[in-house]
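Entry 12.
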Amino acid sequence: MIYHALGINMISPMINTYIKPEDFLKICKNPREYLSEDIKFDHWTYSMFGRRPLGKIKDVEVLFAHSIDVEQSVRFWNKTRKWINWENLIYVLEDVHEVIPYPVVKEFCQLTTKHLCIMGRSMYMNERLKGAIFVGQEYRVHLHIRDSAIENWFDLLGWMNGTFEL
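Predicted 3D structure (tokens):
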């Protein structure tokens, strides 16, 4: 939804997918290893989104959360991964659907590449996690809601361009 908020085309293969936090961390730590390969349909699964196709790259599973068209999902992933600007990667981890295990959050926040961890479930608010933004549960908003807290009190574009530190 960051693309939408900025009015630019969605060019990330991870758009409209769900990837387990542990698997997402694997991709963040080794993006070329995972994103240089085509994704392949593995099987159908049931999730919070209903019956959806699940793709696989090596040992990482990718749920196509907003699509039931296997061919379209695989084609979109494989096409957009070729557009990746390897010099300008930004990783965003948000606890929208589940509480993310603390070791994953901690390791994600220690990435040396540009990263943003948005924690809204207040689980780790007492921790000093560089690269994390905390949004209290009672004020829980997500990046996909227009006029959100992120757009109102966080200079997302400034941070993306490197002029803003957390």
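Annotation: The chain has a mean pLDDT of 79. The radius of gyration is 16 Å.
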